[in-house]
Specification:
The protein is mainly alpha-helical and 151 residues long. It is built from 5 helices and no strands. α3 packs across α4. The longest helix has 32 residues. 1% of the residues are buried.
């Protein structure tokens, strides 16, 4: 029985060592790279919105953090374009509109492209009608009556 307890203690110690190594690796990566947000908070938010069976690789955690930082920088750049010294809520709403309404913007883009394709098809049909119905005759009835643009 004593041997079993020692074996369990060794397993527990090995697990603790592995966990401490993982923590030290994460801390080392954090020290080597400046991340805009606390990694634990980003990971917590990711896990809240992902399926329970999903595992997140370290690189994904870091890249998501960087991406969120880049979005923040872009929004702040747009906010800096305002001439005012105080940032109002309406300014923020306008600056984050593209990020919050990306689905609506993509739907509008598809609708516009479909409309442009329809216009192009109408133009092609009209062009074919003009070519078919308004052919100019090659017969010269009076050379003096030829308009200059037919040359």
């Amino acid at each position: 029985m004593y041997e079993e307890d020692e074996f369990n203690e060794e397993i527990i110690e090995e697990e603790e060592e592995i966990e401490s190594e993982e923590v030290s690796e994460e801390e080392g990566e954090e020290e080597g790279e400046e991340l805009p947000f606390a990694k634990a908070e980003v990971v917590r938010l990711m896990k809240q919105n992902l399926d329970r069976d999903k595992m997140i690789r370290e690189r994904v955690k870091v890249e998501m953090n960087k991406f969120l930082g880049e979005v923040l920088v872009k929004v702040c750049e747009q906010l800096n374009e305002y001439p005012y010294t105080t940032i109002e809520y309406e300014m923020l709403k306008e600056s984050i509109y593209p990020y919050q309404n990306i689905e609506r913007i993509n739907e509008e883009k598809k609708r516009i492209l479909m409309h442009l394709h329809a216009i192009k098809a109408d133009c092609d049909a009209l062009s074919m009608d003009v070519k078919r119905t308004l052919k100019l005759k090659d017969v010269n009835e009076d050379e003096d009556d030829d308009p200059a643009f037919l040359d």
